[in-house]
Design brief:
By secondary structure, this protein is α/β, with parallel strands linked by helices. It contains 14 helices and 12 strands. Bound molecules: pyridoxal-5'-phosphate. Pyridoxal-5'-phosphate (PLP) binds next to α3.
Length: 414
């Protein structure tokens, strides 16, 4: 007897919601089917690797309702899929074991030996590694696009291009790129366009509205929101997600059901958290720009009128990520880090707690000093991920740390 092909994920229905409900409501009430879960208000954790399989699959009257094996499908993970589909406003979505799992599985689904990818050279470091290491080994060619060249997607994309991967806002300088222009340019040559939407979150930016085909996420960040899990996601049209499922099944970057439950719990409050982070981010970006020890502030839209126009067109909120260049370089930046009491030094972002990192020593340490300078990633740059603490407390902590710098110069006077 040959193995039956599994039912495609996302094929089962949840209780419908009225068409008129907004995003925050959908996040609270999406992914529910209490009549199949003992009436539980909270969708339970199906912490099982496998499922009873009664009789030959093809003879089952209800075959679309059978679960077989958690690497292929699991009811807890489908709840997260449903919330993500709603968030991105797409037909379908799938969760993964990590953001890199989602990104690698997606690229390996659509790329073949000889294909050309166009990718921004400001992508997340793991994506850069994938595109400069594993994929070229498999015969994929990559054409890199700088932040400056990203202003003209029509020139960046060529008839030979099969797949385009962008990020907006970028890490750590929070520059935005025109999603509508990228999707027009990619589609004009028949290429698929994917975006890493981790920094913006779908609360602030829904790329599908501008024609982007695939939305990729590190769910480890804002979607989970509590720095207690690793997860990834892809959202898009069902035809693309069905193709991704096949790669997903063999690569196996599967989210554990317990982490899936935590992700769903995080997603319920995403809209609320991001709203707060937007307010805090905007407030602190403005406050930091006034501080004499701050050389420059990076925040979506702050890079001039063109950046502001793009951000205003495609972002509903500007987010909680803010980077600053501290006057005095690396030693001054480290003095600020030592003085901060509430904002902790750590990699990652998007949680309820505020974190700060030094991009030249973490996410961009693999670049040479020259490459970093070319990209504007100076040694005194600090990248903040603001959480949901009292905005006034964060402001006080930051201003005190920077003021302390003014009082105690890092190089003692002669
Ligand atoms: C923008 C972005 N994309 C993707 C990733 C990778 O996600 P993960 O760490 O969940 O694999 C990260 C992680 O830092 C990220 O910041």
């Amino acid at each position: 007897v040959s193995d039956p092909s599994p039912p495609s994920r996302g094929s089962r229905r949840f209780d419908p919601l009225p068409e008129w409900v907004g995003l925050a409501t959908q996040l609270i009430h999406g992914g529910r089917r209490p009549e199949r879960n003992a009436g539980a208000v909270v969708p339970p954790i199906y912490q099982t690797s496998t499922f009873h399989f009664p009789g030959p699959f093809s003879e089952s009257a209800d075959e679309r309702r059978l679960y077989m094996y958690t690497r292929l499908e699991n009811p807890t993970l489908e709840v997260a899929d449903d919330l993500l589909r709603r968030l991105e406003g797409t037909e379908s979505a799938r969760v993964f074991g990590s953001g890199m799992g989602a990104i690698a599985t997606t690229l390996l689904t659509f790329l073949r030996s000889g294909d050309e990818v166009v990718a921004l050279d400001t992508l997340y470091g793991g994506s850069l590694d994938l595109l400069s290491g594993l994929l070229p080994r498999l015969g994929v060619r990559v054409r890199w696009v700088s932040a400056a060249d990203a202003r003209e997607p029509e020139r960046a994309v060529r008839p030979s291009t099969k797949f385009v991967l962008i990020e907006s806002p970028t890490n750590p300088l929070l520059q935005v790129t025109d999603l509508r222009r990228w999707s027009d340019a990619a589609h004009a040559v028949g290429a698929l366009l994917a975006i890493d939407n981790t920094f913006a979150t779908p609360v602030n930016q829904r790329p599908a509205t501008f024609g982007v085909d695939l939305m990729l996420h590190s769910g480890t960040k804002y979607l989970g929101g509590h720095a207690d899990l690793l997860a990834g996601a892809v959202a898009g049209r069902e035809e693309h997600l069905a193709a991704i499922d096949e790669t997903h099944a063999v690569l196996g970057s599967v989210l554990d059901p317990f982490a899936g439950f935590l992700l769903v719990r995080g997603l319920r409050t995403l809209a609320l958290r991001v709203e707060r982070q937007n307010t805090t981010g905007a407030r602190l970006a403005a406050r930091l720009a006034q501080h004499p020890r701050v050389e420059s502030v990076h925040y979506p839209g702050l890079g001039g009128p063109e950046q502001e126009a793009i951000a205003a067109r495609q972002m509903r909120g500007r987010g909680g990520m803010v980077s600053i260049a501290v006057r005095g370089g690396s030693s001054a930046a480290h003095a600020v880090l030592r003085r901060l009491q509430l904002v902790h030094v750590a990699g990652s972002l998007g949680g309820v707690e505020s974190l700060v990192s030094v991009p030249s020593e973490t996410s961009h340490r693999h670049l040479s000093a020259e490459q970093r300078a070319e990209r504007g990633i100076v040694d005194g740059l600090l990248r903040f991920s603001f959480g949901i603490e009292e905005p006034a407390d964060l402001e006080r902590d930051l201003v005190a740390a920077l003021d302390g710098l003014a009082r105690a110069p890092t190089t003692p006077p002669l």
